[in-house]
Queue: 4 jobs
Job 1
Amino acid sequence: GAVVSQHPSRVICKSGTSVKIECRSLDFQATTMFWYRQFPKQSLMLMATSNEGSKATYEQGVEKDKFLINHASLTLSTLTVTSAHPEDSSFYICSATTRAGGSTDTQYFGPGTRLTVL
Amino acid sequence: SQQGEEDPQALSIQEGENATMNCSYKTSINNLQWYRQNSGRGLVHLILIRSNEREKHSGRLRVTLDTSKKSSSLLITASRAADTASYFCATFAGFKTIFGAGTRLFVKA
């Protein structure tokens, strides 16, 4: 089956630094990738949708200058948390689909990255 | 709010009992999916039901969908301690998937 990986699985950084999280589709081409954030004991909140080769579409309330998303290839999307602060500490999960912005049967989720900002 | 609502928020049952979780959503959908998440881990896809389907089974799972009420239910029969996890419904509409608030299920051995 389709596999999505994330790297790193866990990262601890100092306040003010930037952190990059990678999301890769290992055995399929992902035309669309999604980034979610999940705080403890809460649900997943969609942050942004990215299509390969185009700018990401951010959900309301998500700062695009703080959460930089790049989807430069059909197998890789990156999320960079710039100038991270303790309130950015969260579980970040990506997902990928093979459909280009259309109806999709299943999204394939990565295992998540736990970010802790000290 | 992005999220639909799920109830109950938390459910504690004995092993062997059935667990029922409900999900309501706000907009028209193409499909609805249920996922499981163990604490601190990624999501596991359980089952997908399309908007033109009313009921679907997979092993010990039974999902129903009522598009007129914009609601769905997940039934886990003969629960096991290993079923302890959070369960989320997710609706696909407008080219994106939106998750419900989730139900935390605890199955006591």
Job 2
Amino acid sequence: QVTLKESGPVLVKPTETLTLTCTVSGFSLSNVRMGVSWIRQPPGKALEWLAHISSNDGKSYSTSLKSRLTISKDTSKSQVVLTMTNMDPVDTGTYYCARMDEWFGDLDHWGQGTLVTVSS
Amino acid sequence: ETVLTQSPGTLSLSPGERATLSCRTSQRVSSYYLAWYQQKPGQAPRLLIYGASSRATGIPDRFSGSGSGTDFTLTISRLEPEDFAVYYCQQYGSSPPVTFGGGTRVEIK
């Protein structure tokens, strides 16, 4: 059974750095064909893709947020970590990690999401 | 960057009716790389369709996907009460590799 679970702070202050962890089970982060993406959703708004790390450790980022994002993984711990610097209130929202089938580019399993609020 | 435009923004229908949702892309997208998701309030999105027309595991056959090039469609043949939700299309390509549409809300008329 494939599961993903996000963890991290629920509240961060403006200008701080957010660090989120996605812990996966039911598959290995070294599996060929499987990668992990981070997606966020401001309250009442649409989904926004942030970053992706592939099975061979290739990394890609949202064009508009590239300068603020870093994605990495620890295969032995089954964890993918996303950091976002210089947080702003507009970054408030639910952050999801999801497994991607890289043969088709679809996100076939999602975590439950974690709500992050940016406020002083 | 490939922009995905979904229409209509909101679809008001009754249970039992047919729903047709559109996703138009700003550049040609391979049919292999077009997916659809359903999201209900307070829940994570759920994969419905991948490869433009293949149903994900456990998805009822009232959901179908079609299209190619820049025009893709999600059809729900007969709406069930649990189908009222927001639907997103998503493409996988190059730089950046993933983009989502703005969503279509299917609401009870």
Job 3
Amino acid sequence: AQKITQTQPGMFVQEKEAVTLDCTYDTSDPSYGLFWYKQPSSGEMIFLIYQGSYDQQNATEGRYSLNFQKARKSANLVISASQLGDSAMYFCAMSLTQGGSEKLVFGKGTKLTVNP
Amino acid sequence: EPEVTQTPSHQVTQMGQEVILRCVPISNHLYFYWYRQILGQKVEFLVSFYNNEISEKSEIFDDQFSVERPDGSNFTLKIRSTKLEDSAMYFCASGFVAGGEETQYFGPGTRLLVL
């Protein structure tokens, strides 16, 4: 069965430092996508970054990068130069191709706190 | 920048009542989804919709739930007879798949409280 595991319930980082949020996944499907979303206390889900299973290079979006290690089945999110506004829940998710629809399976999330 | 919108932002209803949650997906997207998140828990897939029909639904999406795309813009989730355990944040999402690239953007959510 497809599964996403986020082993860090909470993480703390000092402002301006980098932080890595862990995500491992389990699937036997060769074609999948990996997503990270940010959920601030206001509740909305903000798309951050996407990595396809066939992508050769790690995805980057501004201060966000995805450390994709296919053999280890890991897709860690790296946030560089943390800001106070980065404090939020972060969810890793995997999409599975199912006849054209791409439902997402989510992990339980990591609560990131950025300290001044 | 285009975004998914949802109405209402909050809804309080009595157990047994029908509710309709509304979503306007991003205009050029082809895939539409509903997810829910019970307070403090992870986001769970409910249903996906493509080409005017349900592509896949989870075991949560029982006969009390239905989805519709009544016109070219709106995408609705109806819960016929709400239960206490339906209290959750409901997210609509839309996305496309092109050239190996996927997107799936979420709306701001509707917080449903069933009393």
Job 4
Amino acid sequence: GQQVMQIPQYQHVQEGEDFTTYCNSSTTLSNIQWYKQRPGGHPVFLIQLVKSGEVKKQKRLTFQFGEAKKNSSLHITATQTTDVGTYFCAIRTGANNLFFGTGTRLTVIP
Amino acid sequence: ETGVTQTPRHLVMGMTNKKSLKCEQHLGHNAMYWYKQSAKKPLELMFVYSLEERVENNSVPSRFSPECPNSSHLFLHLHTLQPEDSALYLCASSQGDTGDIDTGELFFGEGSRLTVL
């Protein structure tokens, strides 16, 4: 089935440093979504990217969709302790299926 | 509050027990999902229902039996589970597909933490 590779699996950063997580697919994607799951919480939708080369920003978060629509990234500028959690990309296959990447667990050291 | 409510939040059961997980969504969505989240396989899609019909079953063992009586409710019936089935079971809903239009975001419940002894 459809698979998406997400790297890195873990990332520890000092507060104020930047952070980036990447998702890569072997096939062209129609769109890609990003979610954040706080420790002990549930995944919460962040954004959906649809267009080739699309870049969207949410405050300190920047989301990119590759030109070939096979990869995507999430970049956080100047991390804060509130950014702690696991970030998942998710791809849709078929009408209603949403498959999640393995996630990147971010730890921010104060 | 996400509009998706799961009960119970915690469940401990023996391998011979029969129990059910319940999910209810108040968002008027047409699609509902069950995901399993464990340390080994984060967010593993189990079942998808669209307009109360099951549209996806990702090779889930028959000891897990879903039920969707209407578009607002989703159950996961559990019987003769194994210790490796211990995990967080997350329910989610989305607007649902209409023809070829991609659906939007998933709204997750808080999850049911299952421990099988």
